[in-house]
Amino acid sequence: MTDAAAPLIFHIGYPKTATAILQHQIFSNPALGLALGGGNLSRAHLFDKLVLDDGYQFDAAATAQILRDLEAPQRAAGLTPIWSDETLIGDCIRQVYNGNAIAQQITGMGVPVKIIITVREQQSLCMASWREYVKGGGAQPFERFIGTGHEPMSFTPLLQPEHLMYHRAVDFYADQIGA
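Above: the chain sequence. Below: its structure as tokens.
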């Protein structure tokens, strides 16, 4: 398979699903034939090109080419690059729910892509996310973080329940790129 035909591989999350272990012990392990796409600045490149990019001016073809160029050294070394950032599916701790917009960018690049989605049992993910929120200085009580189901209109919990509906992301990607 030529480099141009090789899929761009993205690990998109969810947060709190052992991503750091995957990134440091699996995805960047040459003994396994893997490397983080773009090397040590992999996450910075993803943020720059997908998360922080002005979606109105997103250039899918240019972004795909930039990612291909950045992963060229890993491919030249015989490694399979993986682009990994757990917040590409959204980040409840920061109340960023942009997973669908990023999914449209990733699947709209006009190149083959493969997606890795890691999940965690929802109650466990809620507790781990809340603990990280509190460690980061968050002051809302747990009930405000997850909600009670009786919030007034337009007052949503920090962790929106829809974020835990993993099938929505899986179904979107499967519809766009296949199972």
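The first strand starts at residue 8 and ends at 13.
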